[in-house]
Automatic annotation (TrEMBL):
The lineage of its organism: Bacteria, Pseudomonadati, Pseudomonadota, Alphaproteobacteria, Hyphomicrobiales. Its EC number is 1.8.1.4. Disulfide bonds join C41-C46. This is Dihydrolipoyl dehydrogenase. The active site is a redox-active disulfide bond.
């Protein structure tokens, strides 16, 4: 069997790449070793975590916010198996949807582990051990990433869990200890806190969400603390013992010092993810890696002609939409078009309550670049719609170049921040200024008016503060 393109891995990077290539007339196949398509994101990542975040948020609202709105439904009861079924049904609908889309676009799907035996040759080893070798003009590696382990700590997915175990617990842990105050720790920590767990997050650095704007992270931490999450910053977990039920966890100051011991029913290890290239045969064909990541040029090509790579397995943020856009870009390049990804405008969202959303540079990054900048901020307490919905936590921060007024970064903590951030992304994609944003009519009453007011505040002309 001979193809124009074989994509290894059908996560958001791989399946989107295959569909775009097929749309452009390339004879395309995918190889996937999981039973279902969709990769980490659809099977055990973005989609199941958002199903649980939504359901647990509704559970908490019913208990805490409904009475203040005059809606009396009594104390809500948790049916965890039903909540997990909602998550599983959501995953099934999404992964089946990808299977359907591949078929619709006439992409051949092979189930099994893909190995590159030579440029232009991919061997597929099925679960039963049978193999077949496919010929192709180009190969795209889209094999994603896997959980980064904590040295000396074994993940059993029952007591010591990764995100995969944490989205499938069969009861609410009394005490959940989260290692790492990154996106996974805060999202899944929020889920289980809302459902009744006492949640403590241990973070190596002296702040949460490294990489996010500092001021945003600080205010967000205060909001999470108000919700009951405890933080132990500047500390690391040095040992986890799991004799009997639960775990005993040793926590040490990052700079050295006396360790403290904490008990937990479940420990969630969420200290990052690492690129996944096992069994791909990269050493054999000479594809270069750097700190585990496949090295690519600006056209997504590795050092071996005809072998390309995208998504979590290459440099850049480990985000589904970044992988998707790279998938589209490389497919377009392979079809002779000008595929491109603008890495300066990739939004990032933490899907907690409130959400945190960000696009472009943080204030710390702008400061470090030496560019003179101006900032406009607007709090949701001054937004009518936010008050009407009792969602007035958080603020919008717009950072613009002080000389040209070009928007360099927008950061939002607030209800629905993950949806609001896209007007900033579109603006930045067009090289827009804070004045462009400030002069754009925004519907009233909406949360998005706070984005406009923050842009107006860059020139100190916000109306409602
Ligand atoms: P993956 O989705 O990891 O897919 C790679 C696929 O390749 C897998 O299906 C794997 O089985 C297959 N594969 C690997 N090796 C082989 C082989 N040799 N042969 C055949 N197949 C192979 N990102 C967001 O943007 N938003 C979110 O809300 C979000 N939430 C997340 C929540 C969690 C709990 C986790 C863990 C991650 C989350 N992410 C989120 C990150 C997101 O899942 C990844 O960035 C995204 O899945 C990367 O896509 P990918 O296509 O590069 O790889
Ligand atoms: P992360 O990189 O976001 O956070 C890991 C945190 O663990 C960091 O704050 C780090 O300082 C800390 N840490 C590292 N070693 C430690 C130690 N020994 N002790 C204590 N703390 C330690 O990684 P996370 O949360 O595991 O997520 C992995 C990836 O998945 C992220 O890169 C993210 O992009 C992606 N993801 C995205 C989501 C989204 O877009 N909403 C949701 C979930 C995951």
């Amino acid at each position: 069997m001979s193809y124009d393109l074989i994509v290894i891995g059908t996560g958001p990077g791989g399946y989107v790449c295959a569909i775009r290539a097929a749309q452009l007339g390339l004879k395309t196949a995918v190889v996937e070793k999981r039973k279902t398509h969709g990769g980490t994101c659809l099977n055990v990542g973005c989609i199941p975590s958002k199903a649980l975040l939504h359901a647990s948020e509704v559970f908490e609202e019913a208990g805490h916010d409904f009475p203040a709105l005059g809606v009396m439904v009594g104390k809500p009861e948790l049916d965890l198996p039903a909540m997990m079924k909602h998550k599983d049904d959501t995953v099934a609908a999404n992964v089946n949807g990808v299977g359907f889309l591949l078929k619709k676009n006439k992409v051949d799907a092979f189930h099994g582990a893909g190995t590159i035996v030579a440029p232009g040759q991919v061997k597929v080893t099925a679960e039963d051990g049978s193999t077949q070798t496919l010929e192709t003009k180009a190969i795209v590696i889209a094999t994603g990433s896997d959980v980064a382990p904590l040295p000396g700590v074994a993940i059993d997915e029952k007591v010591v869990v990764s995100s995969t175990g944490a989205i499938a617990l069969d009861k609410v842990p009394g005490k959940l200890l989260v290692v790492g105050a990154g996106v996974i720790g805060l999202e899944l920590g929020s889920v289980w806190r809302r459902l009744g767990a006492e949640v403590t997050v241990v973070e190596f650095l002296d702040r949460i969400l490294p990489g996010m704007d500092n001021e945003v992270a600080k205010q967000f931490q205060r909001l999470l603390e108000k919700q009951g999450i405890k933080f132990i910053l500047g500390n690391k977990v040095s040992k986890v013992e799991t004799a009997g039920a639960g775990a005993t966890v040793s926590v040490e100051p990052a700079q050295g010092g006396e360790a403290q011991t904490l008990d937990a029913d479940v420990v969630l290890v969420a200290i990052g993810r690492r690129p996944y290239t096992e069994g791909l045969g990269l050493e054999q064909v000479g594809v270069a890696l750097e700190r585990g990541r496949v090295v690519i040029d600006e056209h997504f090509q590795t050092n071996v002609p005809g072998i390309f790579a995208i998504g979590d397995v290459v440099r850049g943020p480990m985000l589904a939409h970044k992988a998707e856009d790279e998938g589209v870009a490389v497919a377009e390049i392979l079809a002779g078009k000008a595929g491109h990804v603008n890495y300066n405008v990739i939004p990032g969202v933490v899907y907690t309550q409130p959400e945190v959303a960000s696009v472009g540079q943080t204030e710390e990054e702008v400061k470090a670049s030496g560019v003179a900048y101006a900032i406009g901020k607007f709090p949701f307490t001054a937004n009518g719609r936010a008050r009407a919905m009792r969602h007035s936590d958080g603020f919008v921060k717009v950072i613009a170049d002080a000389n040209t007024d070009r928007v360099l970064g927008v950061h939002i903590v607030g209800y629905g921040a993950g949806e609001m951030i896209h007007e900033a992304a579109v603006l930045m994609e067009f090289g827009g200024s804070s004045e462009d944003l400030a002069r754009t009519c925004h519907a009233h009453p909406t949360m998005s008016e706070a984005v406009k007011e923050a842009a107006m505040a860059v020139e100190k002309r916000a109306i409602h503060i």
